[in-house]
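Page 47, continued from p. 46.
Same chain as before, 553 aa.
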Amino acid sequence: MNRTDWLLTPPERGNPATRIDRRRPGGAAWSEGNDARPLVHGAAYFAELLERIDGQREGDLLLFTDWRGDPDERLARHHPGRDGADRHGTEIATVLSRAAERGVIVKGLVWRSHLDRFQFSETENRHLGEKIENAGGECLLDMRVRPGGSHHQKMVVLRHSGRPLLDVAYIGGIDLCHSRNDDTSHLGDPQSMPMAGAYGPHPPWHDVQLALRGPVVGDIEAVFRERWQDPSPLSRSPLTRLRELLHHEDTDADSLPPQLPDPEPCGTHTVQVLRTYPNRLLRGYPFAPDGERSIARGYLKALRRARSLIYLEDQYLWSPRVVACFAHALRVNPGLRLIAVIPSLPEQDGRLTLPMNLIGRINALDRLRAAGGPRVAVYGLENHAGTPVYVHAKVCVIDDVWASVGSDNINLRSWTHDSELSCVVLDETPDPRPPHDPGGLGDGARGFARRLRLELSREHLDLDPAPHASGGAEPTDGALCDPGAAFHAFAAAAADLDAWHADGRRGPRPPGRLRSYRPPDLAATSRVLATPLHHVLVDPDGRPLRLRRRNAF
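Result:
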């Protein structure tokens, strides 16, 4: 497999100012010999993160960035029927503060957020930073974004002085905040944020994070260091600067210790780090003076090779401009199918907010279906009680070869306007199960990409893994390896569950969690779409249209 067929070269990244592509001899734009593991759901991620942080000692390094951080979010999973005493002391602020008190060097960058009256997270992020600072760490509230933008990257880097085999980085879609600590049962997180009423008091939450070991840990650390060492003020707003003074906030980043050598190779995965940074007004980022669009460009390159199946899990799937590249791939490859798993409902409801949130999605799905017709299938999820599951994952698998997990959604914000971080994984090892050859390209399925797709598919189809002679697990339905069979398995499971609901939920519930996606309250949405000025009044990507037009991939 030729890596340059699927991955971006340094010129294709389009950001010569970054040191990401200058870290290795020969200027390789990716690292080899890594081990990437998907951690499906916040419970799996939080449990591992808690163990790894508690294992750090004096002189080790802990770096993190986040969109939102709730200081009281507990990393230990709640178990029904227990009093929860075993969870005390696992609050994220307590865990990070305890590490700082042990002598771990703790540094964090959390988005400052817009004002709390807009239902973001200004207060929570500030309180998390205060607790870490009081323990001897350092956590800065970073508002170095374009107007209306956010820092959406979610990473944790753990380095160990003299113990490089323990080094690990985590990236993906999971914030260190409320609602994220759910598992495969999808009963929700007891510490939940309010959402649309259909999701209930504890919204079920589906998400994915990557655990990374090997040389790529150094790349993720370099991403943090570029932002940390940015000499620009944390905010340009005079009001924000005044609040910083009133709250005695730390606004000057202390120096970091020199970066350790990258961990040694430990696996078969080639990993490329991709990002989005906006082209900031007036003064850009020193590491991306004209912004960076490598996430969008990575998709554009990989989609040109798609021949059999695009598997998506995404929070939004908005914006006709963004899905145009998916539609083009469907149009020029008549054997290509697309499966998308998205939220059945927007996170917020209301007479105005619901249709506004659906405009971008309806337009995007119309474009995909016009290009692919019945080869495009879109699903929502529900738990076994019939409660919708909020899909927050950001995953794409193309032809069981190219796999991406990150903080970025399929919408214009993530591709142009917010800061985002994603990793593309190519496995050097072919999948041992009967491979398919997408379009005669000779690539065949690769181990990581196929395992990731099958793990997610098994959960949605209620297929339990069966023991394997090697000690691992194989799916009970090996036909899922075939893209066509997988496409039809999703359709059949959703049809059975839809029919059961239509029949008043009589009789045993069919297996699976998939529901055919149907936009709610379509009549109200249609009224907004019919308004002559809706394209001026409403931007489904949530920012001024005049800023949106300035961005390009």
